[in-house]
Amino acid sequence: LFHSDAIVFISHFKGHQLSGFGGAIKNAGMGCACRAGKLVMHYNVNPQVHEEQCIGCMVCATWCQVKAISKKGTKAFIDPEICTGCGLCIDPCPKGAIRIKWDMASSDMQKRMAEYAFGAIKNKKVLFINFVSDITPECDCFPSSDAPIAQDVGIIISNDPVAADRASYDLINEKAGHDVFKHT
Predict the structure, then answer these.
(1) With CB atoms counted within 10 Å of each terminal CB, which end of the chain scores lower, N or C?
(2) pTM, to two decimals
(3) Rounded to whole angstroms, how far apart are CA atoms 97 and 90?
């Protein structure tokens, strides 16, 4: 990517657990970041095991791509030095024992993601294509997601990632009659 003159970004616009929604900016920021960059963006959103709920089944460990989860005694343990904060371990836990500590502002991650997106596209010809269909509440990186939270809108194309995401967001909410991405 560093040596390219132009990039076409194709994004599935949908909900996202931390950024509210994901589209062109998230795709450019996360998609073009190296592993270390992804860690920087997720540095303070590492999942934690709530021991009182953990039954030690280790289903979570089968989803961990970086082998950050091990068994300590009879419970799962997530090593914060290894964990990348991807969150893949959260959904499959049968007891809901793995959760993210939400006392940090998601705006911190959003700012870092936007910085990485800017770095990826700076001085390049770019085109952003958002597919605004099958709009589910969670990111595609999760092993599963709920039913769509909004009607399909179509395809948004722009050379400006902010304009592409704003148009996608506005059209979804206009069709729904309310902000479908607001967490209550």
Answers:
(1) C
(2) 0.70
(3) 8
How would you class 11 by CB atoms within 10 Å of its CB: exposed for 0-12, middle for 13-18, buried for 19 or more? buried
Sheet containing 125-132: order of strands: 6-12, 125-132, 154-158
- CA 120, 103, 47, 130 torsion-angle sign: negative
In DSSP terms, which residues pair with 77 in a beta bridge?
Answer: 70
Residue 154 tokens, joined: 């179509």
Each residue's pLDDT tens digit, 69-115: 999 999 999 998 898 777 788 889 999 999 876 555 677 888 888 99
Max Cα distance, the chain (Å): 54
Question: What would the two tokens of residue 46 be?
Answer: 């590492």
92: left (phi over 0), alpha (psi -120 to 50) or beta: alpha
CA dist., res. 45 & res. 139, Å (int):
15
Q: Residue 50: phi, psi to the nearest 5?
A: -90, 100
* CA separation for the pair 58, 27 (Å, rounded): 31
Do the Cβ atoms of 117 and 161 come closer than 8 Å?
Answer: yes
